Q: What sequence folds into this?
């Protein structure tokens, strides 16, 4: 079962306590795909400028990640510059240049539209709605969002939430969306907005899953060196969705919990190096080994 | 196997988003004992002023908590006033009146000295050393500490760390003690200071255990209402130590992980109400039920 992912392809300049990198490859659709393609085939939708390296698209194609949905527009690609200080959980945005993203109007190629599995990364909820209008009735639609949209486009966001199955967002976003400082109460309120499954991302503290009335909590995989947290949430989503799509079973609690473990594993690889460099070089054996190590960390 | 606990008995005035309470019962030795006595018998050491309610000592005695080691001194009991704002993980100290605690010189009654299990709550490491000098060779010595001692009495604290088996402290303290911003590296450094077991308390995110080269992570029990986090760390320690003392087996990873689960359970009860009110009224059945619920939350 392939996954359609709609999101950004970007250049990132990032500074962390471990160094500074200029204009490396980033973007939600990239981080997601680089994690998810270990589980199933991926169809990407996004927009790039004419400065985006052709080699990367070829690299994706080699990995059987379909790039037909990536539009190339005259102009510069989306650019983000961020800084992580000692707290690696929180990036400080220094520069955001939307560039071609301002003209982004996601159009799904015909063969994408019957896909059974869709991930809407964090972007304008009005465009998320437009994507939802282009697909049939996928069995699994998941979305991410951020404070900016919660504050500025609440109505469109609420319309999106009514049409998805799984909402992924971080703690601060969950609290802002619901006005609740307690996560359990925030989850209860969010289920009333539509999604039947909710995953709250908690950075180095892991993730919390709400599924059919029960709460599961998973810690992050403990790492001695976190080089760059950028894209961790998207790589996490890639692992979760990848596992679910592979197993074609979205309503089994056991499967969903396992999916969250694979999300955790893929996020841990993502943050071990800048960009998605570590995700590029993985073997399936390395993924399975870390899965077993994570199991060890949480076992009684 | 009984546990000797050395710590404070206090009056606390606390303000949280749920209300304000004046001069309720608190103190590390109290919170610890109220959690640990569900597992084994407790011998308390501490100091109170002549304003401390006799009924509380009688209440403890009724619960088979030995109060012989509690010295009564002319003057006022230790008083702390704190404020929790929307972030219930972090108290803001408004007032600390040491009062009789300034004259605290812990003396263990003769029948306490052969105890096999000792918990040194957070107090002056020079006094922690004096307690260690009074005991034989307990199989399990655990201690807690805080930033104040890490910064001001580092030498004495390091002498304590050489003589204990289990160190319990929170994330910020672990980072301050080691100068490491990464917890796994902080743990590695701390093991070089002495303790073979380390538990890092992470508030609403749970706890991390280091034991014989392996890391285990446990989330906190998810609660919809946290009324007052004061004493959660001591109630957690009470559950951990209580379980270990009951099972008389401190070197089995399985047992230590279970102990951490019971610590988590007891901490969750502690924070559901002000003071240790919720811990007062528990049944063993309620403890076991929550243990099973926690198991469910973390199960795959």
A:
């Amino acid at each position: 079962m392939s996954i359609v992912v709609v999101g950004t392809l970007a250049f990132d300049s990032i500074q962390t306590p471990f160094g500074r990198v200029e204009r490396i490859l980033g973007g939600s659709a990239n981080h997601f795909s680089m994690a998810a393609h270990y589980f199933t085939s991926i169809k990407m939708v996004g927009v790039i400028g004419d400065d985006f390296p052709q080699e990367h698209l070829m690299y994706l194609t080699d990995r059987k990640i379909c790039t037909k949905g990536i539009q190339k527009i005259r102009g510069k690609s989306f650019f983000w510059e961020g800084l992580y200080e000692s707290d690696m959980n929180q990036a400080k945005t220094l520069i955001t240049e939307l560039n071609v993203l301002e003209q982004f109007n996601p159009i799904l190629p015909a063969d994408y539209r019957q896909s059974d599995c869709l991930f809407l990364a964090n972007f304008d909820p009005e465009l998320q709605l437009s994507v939802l209008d282009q697909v049939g009735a996928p069995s699994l639609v998941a979305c991410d969002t951020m404070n900016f949209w919660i504050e500025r486009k609440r109505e469109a966001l609420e319309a999106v939430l009514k049409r998805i199955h799984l909402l992924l967002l971080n703690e601060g976003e969950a609290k802002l969306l619901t006005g609740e400082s307690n996560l359990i109460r925030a989850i209860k309120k969010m289920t009333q907005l539509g999604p039947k499954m909710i995953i709250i991302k908690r950075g180095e503290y892991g993730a919390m899953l709400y599924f059919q009335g029960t709460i599961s909590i998973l810690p992050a995989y403990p790492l001695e060196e976190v080089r760059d947290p950028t894209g961790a949430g998207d790589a996490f989503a890639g692992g979760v969705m990848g596992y679910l799509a592979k197993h074609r079973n979205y309503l089994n609690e056991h499967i969903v919990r396992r999916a969250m473990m694979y999300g955790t594993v893929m996020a841990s690889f993502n943050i071990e190096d800048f960009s998605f460099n570590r995700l590029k070089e993985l073997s399936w054996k390395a993924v399975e080994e870390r899965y077993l190590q994570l199991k060890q960390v949480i076992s009684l």
User: Anything to note?
Assistant: Chain B touches chain A at residues 17, 86, 88, 181-185, 202, 205-206, 208, 214-219, 222-226, 254, 257-258, 261, 295-300 (CB under 8 Å). The radius of gyration of chain B is 18 Å. Chain B has a mean pLDDT of 96. The first helix of chain B runs from residue 28 to 36.
